[in-house]
Amino acid sequence: MNKKEKISPPKWALRFFRWFCNPDYVEDIEGDLLERFEKRANEQKSAKWLFVLDVLKLFRPGIIKPVFDGLRLNYYGMFKHNLLISIRSFKRYKTTFLINLLGLSTAFASVFLIHLWVDNERSVDAFNTNDKVLYRAMTHFQLPTKKVTWEYTSGRLAESMLEEYPEVIKSTRVNNKFFIPKGIVTANDRHQEVEGQFADPNIFSVLSYQMIIGDPTKAISDKQSVVISESLAKKLFESAQNAIGQTIQWNCSLFNQGFVVTGVYASPPKNATRQFDLMINYEVLIDADEWADHWKGGYAETYLVLSENTDINAFNKKIAHHIDEKIENDKFTLFLQKYSDRYLFGQFEDGKLVGGRISNVRLFTYIALFIILIAAINFINLSTAQASTKLKEIGVKKAMGSNRKQLVFQFLTESMLMSFLSIVGAIILVYAMLPYFNQLIDQTLSFTLLDNIPTIALTVVGLGLLAGLYPAFYLSSFRPISIMRGKLPSMSGEKWMRQGLVIAQFSLSVIFIIGMLVVNGQLNFIENKPLGYNRTNLLTFEGKGSDRVDPSILIAEIEKIPGVKNATSMAGPFLWGNDNGSGFHWNGDQANRNHLFKSPKIGFNTIETLELKLLAGRSFNRSFNDDRTKIIINESALQMMGLEEPIGFKLKYGDDEYREIIGVVEDFQYGSLHQPIEPLIFRFRGRGENYMVRIDAGAELRVIEEIEKLYNDVYPNFSFESQFLDDEYDQLYVSEQRIGSLSGYFALFAIIISSLGLLGLVTFTTERRIKEIGIRKVLGCSVTKIVLLLSSDFTKLVLLAILIAIPLSYLGVQEWLQNFAYHIDLEWWYFAVGAALALVIAWLIISTKTVKAATMNPVESLKDE
Amino acid sequence: MGKHQLGEFEEVVMLTVAILTDEAYGFAIIEEMEKRLNRKVSIGALQTVLRRLEKKGYLTSEMGEATAVRGGKRKRFFHLTSAGKNILQETKEQRLGLWNAVPEFVVKFSH
Lengths: 865, 111
Hints:
By secondary structure, chain A is of the alpha+beta class.
């Protein structure tokens, strides 16, 4: 721990103590507990554990408050007896016990894992102490057809909001994510690649970043100061102390200058979306680019602290036109969103919040609930099914004078014990699976038993009640006379219930299977969809540093390397998919000026390197001396403009400029498949430093090595980082891939658990009908007929489950697919395969038991009685 | 009332209360016992005994003033009653009587 924080005793333990303790003693004993805890906390680490131990040791007759005044009941004897009976019944029905244990443990383990993940998602960006009143300024911007939502604002907004609205207590601005200063920092003869942040000096009073050394109020108050993270300080100067007062040289795309270290802060917590190695005054950005402090520039992100009781909806109405007033426009709507909400509720469509990551959080919460439900259903089913074996016991007990309450208590003890044992199993499973789970979701979650004890206790009791209540009340309701006379109480209601539960279980399983199939189908589709360009064997890398380099020299050198087919450069990464531009108009129609075209800026040879298909005209060519006045459009743009003779046509650009169309390319996917293909205009930029090199298959390693050598000559001190475009493309779908594999695993668990339940039920019913089967066989019934007879009941249930599941899953996956602009069609076979799979699984399970029962020698089953 | 015998732990607790005179509250008693007797005492064990002794009339208790430490909780101070003092005295005499009756060589040999 790098900071001495005041630790406090586990709250739940204290609450538990207050609950059971005799009210006369609570105050002074609690004082003793706290005093002892404080003393221990100063000396040793295990103070929390010892505190819990102390509380547990206080849980004894002299201290516990009297339950009934003057009446002391001895429940202990009965409790011991119940435990014994439960353990005996576990031993006697080992299959049932194992099925329950496995099912419940897996279910709990899945739920714990999901809970850990969900908790982690919810904690993102919520680390600020003023989280409740910390907001982020956002804007909706009106396009001709729809509204788009931006989290970046003008650099002037923070100050003007603070001045004009009394509700705003503090405001600060940082650069938006397109202006993150990256580059290389040099100090002590060491070089380090960094990502930084521009910020107003009051940043430390708005966001809760911890300053380790230095005065947070003055740290970046001038343009020569820098604060650096603890880890960067260690890398450059060995320790935070050494860093103070040192000068570092920072070479970044916007500037190259020296700064004095005035403070060291603890690196932002893992669950912060903004991570940065060093921070400098926002004014430096303004010096580099005056638009950073202009109402018409969107270079900043603005964070505001509002006064405690501001009604955010009313305030949003009040500020809606704040920006419009400043720039005499009517297209902006300003609004505030809670800083910590941005991560989970990040998706806006046409000016309305439509969700974001929260939908995954919800999805998995539902999956967790369903899994628990399925496991609980197993337990309920198996316990009620076993009722008949317990009937005699219940009859005898009732005849001996036991009342209903005691019987209910007995069955609840059994279910609680079961629930407790499976939690223990689950905890072991969680510890075993956590590393793999972390790998899967690319996180470092950890499970600490101590913090989770109240949740665990609650789950044990909750599940014990959920699973035990029905059997407990049902079984204890029988009348002793009818039981003892061997007359079974009417089981029809119970049978319905059991069948209903099996149907529910299998419906969920079928839904999970179909969901899994569709998700995987869509992911495959994304992987293999022809995009209109060739993304294999295409190496990309970018130039770094503030010195502008003419890329054509490097490209010419690269093209000489044997094994290189083509090389080019453009401005901005190709897969970004978001380079837009407007201002083009044609046929005298001024309204077209507002149309926002996708408009990436490419260089010579880019079309050839990407292997885009030219439909007409030519691409940018050195020998024609092409420059910014030439453009190439795609098919969609051509259709939109409705030009008969596109080649040579001159679009108007702005008031007095022209752009001549020299070529038309076939439509291709720009960006990820979440975006539809839109009209696109290629602009020309010869000095872009995002390089792309097409390499012959098989020559990759050697060629990359040679390119690295050339790169290091042009960009000294910077490390060469290259990727293949197809890997980057896959990265665009990383969250879908993750959701796909996660839901796959949990669906598998759900299916395994419901299969286990079915297995238990089949085992039980076949055992009960063993005599019937024997007699049938004696009378000449064939094995096949018996198997069919035994399976038909369950088959009907599974079929019914399929009927229920198909429409539900259709709605679910349809909804999910809407997230993609291009998606697979829902074909009937997804549902057919899902249904068939469920049926096959069910039959396999059923047949393991029925075949055995049917082939058994009738002598065995009929020998007694 | 039949004659009551103090248990070993009860005796030790009462003696510690006597040592601490006006400062005998839960945690202080534990500290003192742990220091002098070198044995671990849990709050649960101690509090049970204190309440039992109080019920038997050997101890009285009163709440002190609230302080800023220990979460602002008040302390409960324990005092010996005259019955408590008597039984301590009695126990001591019984023990001494027993000691005196032990032949000297037995004790010596045991060393």
